[in-house]
Design brief:
9 helices, Rossmann fold, single chain, 247 residues, two-stranded antiparallel sheet
Length: 247
């Protein structure tokens, strides 16, 4: 069993597993979300809870509900959140996103986030492990089902933020619009300055007016492969100016 370790020096402890790993996608999404002013958030398919944890750290007034289909991952998420926060600030439920109407009242949240499976059924081989297969492919919840759930759970003006693959951006926008979620912000994630994007970070608003803001791309490394200043900020790896002066 993996032991818990600090996410960054002095940061919160976090434990992941092979079935519910800590992934860059969720960390980048956690930075993209604007949780200020939000009171009630839901993490759809929360896995081990990294996205919920990052949002709770950034927004002291926010309460987050994690919804996870896999019982083992849900238990791990509760363990990870419980190390850093009182129970009054979070809860983790084991349940199916597709059963959202049974689990929650309409408009229960003003923020929804998700790092969903990227690959539709039939698009390629999936891992033999059911939990890992569900994390990679739409075996348990399709993109339209996810967007419909987010739309039902959000009140008017509520925000839905997710990370996705750029080759499915057209499908994403269609699914959001069909559910009544208007795309409002988009940021492309590029491995290097000259690279095509490998991820998209998107925010949609329940009942929002048309109008999409495209933000400057998030570039992960420079031409030599060194981490960009923004990635160092996101991962709390900035050099201490005192350390620099002591050299």
């Amino acid at each position: 069993m993996r032991s818990a370790s600090a996410l960054w020096p002095g940061g919160p402890l976090f434990r992941d597993t092979e079935q519910a790993p800590l992934c860059t996608d969720s960390v980048l999404l956690g930075d993209f979300v604007r949780p200020a002013g939000r009171k009630r958030g839901i993490d759809l398919g929360c896995g081990a809870g990294i996205l919920s944890l990052l949002l709770l750290l950034r927004a002291p007034a926010l309460h987050v509900t994690g919804l996870e289909l896999q019982p083992e991952a849900a238990a791990l998420a509760a363990e990870n959140l419980g190390r850093s926060f009182p129970e009054a600030r979070y809860r983790v439920l084991t349940g199916d996103i597709r059963e959202h109407r049974r689990l929650f009242a309409a408009g229960s949240f003003d923020l929804a986030v998700s790092n969903p499976p990227y690959f539709p059924l039939g698009s390629g081989a999936l891992p033999p492990d059911p939990a890992r297969a569900a994390a990679r492919g739409e075996t348990d919840c399709s993109l339209p089902e996810l967007c419909a759930a987010a739309a039902y759970l959000l009140g008017s003006g509520g925000r839905f933020c997710l990370v996705y693959r750029p080759e499915r951006l057209s499908e994403l926008f269609c699914a959001l619009s069909a559910a009544g979620l208007e795309p409002k912000r988009l940021r492309l994630v590029c491995p290097r300055p000259e690279s095509a994007p490998s991820l998209v970070l998107a925010e949609a608003r329940r009942g929002g007016r048309p109008g999409l803001a495209i933000e400057p791309p998030l570039v992960l490394t420079d031409a030599e492969g060194n981490e960009s200043a923004e990635v160092k900020r996101i991962y709390h790896r900035e050099e201490d100016p005192k350390d620099e002066n002591d050299r």
